[in-house]
Amino acid sequence: MSDSEESSGDDWPVTGAWLEDMLATYHARAAGQPPQESERPSGSAAVRVREFTVRPGCDAGESVLSDILAVSVSYSLLEGGGGGGGEEQEGRHLDLIIKLLPHDPFSRYFVTEAQFDLREIKFYTQVVPELEAFQRRQLAAGAAPLPLPIPRCFHARYAAGGCVPEGDGEGGGGGGDGDASPTPCESVLVLENLKTRGFRGADFSRGLSLRQAAAALDAVARLHALSLALKVKEGQPLAERYPFLFQTARATDSYQQLVERGLPQLARFLERRPGMEQVLAALSALRPATKEVIASLLAPQEPLALITHTDFWCNNLLFREERRASERDEESALGEEDEGEGEGDGEAEGQGECTCAVLDWQMVTYSRPTNDVALLLISSLPTELRRRRAPALLDGYWASLTRAAAALGVRVEEELGYDRARLALDYRRSQLLALLLCVGSVDVALGDPRTEQRLLDVLADLHRDGVLDAAVAAQ
After folding, report:
1. Which of 165, 196, 227 is the endpoint of a domain?
2. Is the domain of 261 the same as that of 151?
3. Residues 317 and 180 in one domain
4. Which of 105, 228, 373, 419 is deepest in the core (most CB within 10 A)?
C-alpha cells in the first residue's frame, strides 16, 4: 500500500484497515445483507485492500465547510466471507472523495454549530434512499427511472459532540469493536469521485455556457420534482418528514450574518464605480429589512414547497460534456472553445449531451424551487447570456419539472394550480434573495475584472427592474 505525503487527515490518516471495513460494509449492504458491526470481530472484513493513495481533494481555501481527501483504492472481495482466508475475486478499483470536518477550529465550530455536516449526511442516507424507493413505487412499469444527479454514497457517519458506539452512525460501516475501530469520532462522508468519470468543474470567472446552465436546471428540476411528488402522494409535509432540513429561522440567521459582513464590502466597491450611485442608495435603503426579506423568501410557499439545494451556483456543480466527433474536430482546428464569454448562443441543441452533477448538500432546505433557479442565473451566468436567455432557461426548467412530476403521477398545473406565469412571479421574488446571498459571498466576485463587471451588471439590471426593494418579497 502506498500513501501520499500530502494529507489533511493527520488526526486520522486513512488506513487500509478502515478502507477494508468500510468497503466490506458497503458491499454487504449492496447485497441486501447489512452486517452487524457490533458482533463482527476486528479484522473480519470480506475485502482485501491491495493498494491505496490519499491526496488533497481540492485546492487550499477552496472548501470552507469540509476537509476533503481524494482516495484511490484497489481491492478484492474475498469469497467465503472474512477472516482473511477467503479466495480473492477479480480485483476492483474505486476513486473516492472523503469529506471530513474542517481541521481549522473556527470553521469546525461553524460547521458543527449550524449542523452542515449532519444535514448533508442525512441527505445522502435518508432523503436520497427514500426518493429512490418512492420513484420505484411510483413510476409506471417499464418507465425509465429519473437519474439523481449526485455522486454515489459509499459510507456516512455522524457523531455529535464526541464518540458514539460503533454501528450507531448514519449509514453504518463503522468498523470493529470500540477502541479498535479506525473510524474517527467525527462526521465522515464517503462519495464517488465523479472527476474520474469525466466530470469537470466550471470556471466561475467565465461563467456557465448555455448548455451547462440548461443541464444544471434540468438536474435540479428532477430533484425538485421527486420531493414535490413525494410530498403530494404521501401527504406528509417534508419539514416533518425531514426535521434536519435547514429551518427558516436558523438559515435566516446564518445568511443575515453573511449579508451584514458583505454589504459594507460591496458598498466600498460601488463607491469607486461611477454611475452606481442609485444602486448604492437602493441597497442602503434595503439594508434594515434584509433579515425580514431573507426569512420571507426562504420560507416554503405552497403549493410548490419542496426540497431545495439553496447553494446552487457553479462552484457546487460538475459537468460532463460529450461532443460529436465533427464538433471536436472543428474545435481542434479553431482552438479551445470560449464557453463563458461567448454567451453560448451558438451552442445549439443536439451538439452532444451535457450532464450535470450537483454537490455539497449542506444547506438543503424546505423552500421554494425558484430560489435555486435564481441563484444559479444571478451568480453564474455571463451578463449577455443571462439577459438574452433567462426566459428560455426558465422555460426549460419548467418543462423538466412538470415532465418529471407527471411521470411520478403529479400534474402540477391541473392538480396544484401552479403554472408558468406563477413561476415567473416567484422567480422575480427569488432574484432578490439570490442577490442577498451573493452579497454575503461578495468576496468571491471581487478581485477579478470579469466577475466584478458581472456583479455590476446584475446590480444595475435588478435595480432597473425594481427588484432591489423589500416590497418585492411581499408581492
Report:
1. 196
2. no
3. no
4. 373
Say whether both 295 and 330 belong to one domain: yes
Answer whether residue 4 is part of any domain: no
Residue 72 host element (H or E): strand 67-79
Q: Quick check: helix, strand or coil at residue 157? A: strand
Number of domains into which the chain is organized: 2
Regarding whether 188 and 159 lie in a shared domain, the answer is: yes
Assess whether pLDDT exceeds 50 at residue 118: yes
Write b or e for each residue in 178-212: b if 16 or more Cβ atoms lie within 10 A of its Cβ, otherwise e.
eeebbbbebbbbbbbbbbeeebeebebebbbbbbb
Q: What is the spatial order of strands in the sheet that 354-358 belongs to?
A: 200-201, 317-321, 354-358
Q: How far is CA 29 from the centre of its chain?
A: 25
- Say if CB 186 and CB 103 are below 8 A apart: no
pLDDT digits (tens, 9 = 90+) for 60-94: 445 567 889 999 999 999 876 555 556 677 789 99
Largest separation between any pair of C-alpha atoms in the chain: 75
Domain range for residue 99? 16-196
What is the percent of the chain where pLDDT is above 90?
69
Nearest C-alpha neighbor of 379 from the set 444, 282, 295: 444
Cα separation of 146 and 157, whole Å? 27
Residue 349 domain-assigned (yes or no): yes
Q: For residue range 247-284, what is the model confidence (pLDDT) as tens digits?
A: 999 999 999 999 999 999 999 999 999 999 999 999 99
Q: Of the candidates 151, 166, 196, which is a domain's last residue? A: 196
Indicate the pTM of the whole model. 0.86
Dihedral, 105, 109, 112, 114 alpha carbons, nearest 10: -150
Q: Which residues make Cβ contacts (< 8 Å) with residue 298, sequence separation at least 6?
A: 248, 251, 252, 255, 310, 365, 367, 371, 433
Q: Rounded to whole angstroms, what are the CA distances from 331 to 56, 281, 379?
A: 32, 46, 28
Q: Is the dihedral of CA 208, 214, 215, 219 positive or negative?
A: positive
